[in-house]
Amino acid sequence: MTGQSSTAGSAPAGESIVDWYAAAARDLPWRTEGIDPWAVLVSEVMLQQTPVARVEPVWRSWMQRWPTPADLAATPPAEVIRAWGKLGYPRRALRLREAAIAVAERHDGVVPADVAALEALPGVGTYTARAVACFGYGRRQPVVDTNVRRVVARLVHGRAEAGNARAADLADIAALAPEDDARAVRFSVAVMELGALVCVAGTPRCGACPVRDRCAWRLAGSPAHDGPPRRVQKFAGTDRQVRGRLLDVLRAAEEPVDPAALEPAWDDAAQRSRCLDSLLADGLVEQTPDGSFTLPT
Ligand code: SF4
Fold this sequence. Notes:
- The protein has helices at about 15-25, 35-45, 50-65, 70-75, 75-85, 90-105, 115-120, 125-135, 145-155, 170-175, 180-195, 215-220, 240-250, 270-280, and strands spanning about 285, 295.
- By secondary structure, it is mainly alpha-helical.
- Strands 1-2 form a two-stranded antiparallel sheet.
- The radius of gyration is 22 Å and the shape is globular.
- Mean pLDDT is about 95; it is low at about 1-5.
- Bound molecules: iron/sulfur cluster.
């Protein structure tokens, strides 16, 4: 089954998903008509591993403070890490600043529209490059994230789960897109939204799905997932949690922090030390000549 196929009397799947989106889309600030591609890039980097509800307030204050790549490029890393707040995976903040510097230096301060040029920016992978070209510049592009892969797995291939990323994912989603370019751009965000709101991980809400009568997984009787179980990421007790606690202390401090002041952040000295080392290696923390720790200057 391809997305452009349709059952008697029904529109192709891609068209139905676009129509559904018109009524069901969440009102998110980075989806505003005519949004600056820089704002899209910032949102996509923040959303890579963080839910919308946590991203939105940070994105708003970030865009107010650094409305252009040049503004961010001129900012010391410590301020950028502070502004990243509790979004998690803070290396993204440094990479976004490096991308802003590259845009300022190589592209006259304007985020490029070309996917290859976007992919050449620090921290910008295939997904983010295509998302910026599509959502920021209105270019027809297949954009595939985890949510989209799950929709494709079920709708097109009749599988309960997406499994590992496949080279064919881009072609699958391109085949589902409407022919009209403007609607194809709309489709890229619409299918992502379908995966986020309806065709969700675990039990999908098929009763609310605009393509339920054409879904290969439903037509096959909704077979159970027969691959390896999905890994659920834990957080408590992980190095990620410890790194976050250590960064919290440094973010709150106006001056470099004595190592003893980091001890209350985590009891296990070996884990605390390992995490501090990894923060130093990642460039998220610096050590001063007297042995104190600080955010990078
Ligand atoms: S019918 Fe259900 S499984 Fe199929 S695409 Fe829609 S929500 Fe996903």
